[in-house]
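Journal club side-thread
Mid-discussion, someone asked how the predicted structure for our own chain would compare to the paper's figures. Pasting it here so we can look after the session.
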Amino acid sequence: MNKSMITAAAFLLAGSLCAALTEKDLTPQAIVPAIAAQPENQRQAYAREVLQAIATSPADDTAKTQALTSAARALIAGAGASQGIAVIAEIFNTVPVAQLQGVADLLAEANFGQATNGFTDAQYDDFCTKVVASASRYIEASGTDSPAVRMSILAATFTKASASPDRTRPKLIAALPTAVQAAAATYVAASEQGNREVIAAATGVDEVTATPADPDAANVVAAPASQAAQAAAAQPAAAAQPAAAQAAAADAAVGDPAEPERLTARTDYLEPAPIPAEGDDAGEAQTVEVKVPLLSRYTTDVSGLTTAAMMASMYNWEVQSPGVVSLPGLGGPIEPVAGIDEQIPENFPRPKKLPPSPLYGNQRIF
């Protein structure tokens, strides 16, 4: 089976899987155990199927945005530590751009906040930089629509959720691919300010859906403060402590982060997980088929083929059948143009023989 047939089969399989998901399968209660039951290297693909199924549903824009938000939270919660960043990348890669800003606003407000997750400034900036760098590379390579805008909304989401957006914003823009950083500065500002006209113009959609009410407002549980934050709160003001006491407090704050059951970005996502390729054979899936220019000419360059045939008919004397030239891809032999000797009549006067060139003294051999 060649690669084109394999690709076609993959698209048909993906379509059949999306079609097999029912409305009941797309509820948060069904999504969390379903993605957790998937092998780790297939959880991102499952997240894509769920999001695509919701995106193509006949619901109105507001209901669709709310459903995508609830599904995104369930996918992150069920994916586990190893695939958390991969699923976040898929959310910003697959959710339609018309609904992405609304989904991002709700996630930033209730799920990705620095205070919500109990991160210190250093922890939060480190976490967000790794998420944005890993997810933006995936979005850039995926071939999705409006990648620069999607990356910018991703960076703006974590910027808005920071305790100090001005501190976090330049770090996240710098984590984006170099080619999009200039445009991202404009789109990040538009996303933070809720300027949907700029996003709609950049993506070509008629309208970017307004951010709806949070469908899970009663169910999202804030994470407890991190151990570092708890230790800092329990200690007197840092300025009143001697350096030794501050060092001891910092050492006491080091430990494994808690693992609460919550639908928020968690500290165990600090190390980005590798984003798996689709299909069982990852090595084959990552191989890019590239045409060799000199070979692809035989199927694309008609003018070059004609020129090559004419040149061969005039100057290539070592042909199998005299007077006939055959080249690959031309559909058969071509009668060549007559050579220069055949065009001169036999009775045409020949030029007179010239006397030999004079010899010079330094040319004679003694």
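Post-session note: Residues 121-142 form the longest helix (22 residues).
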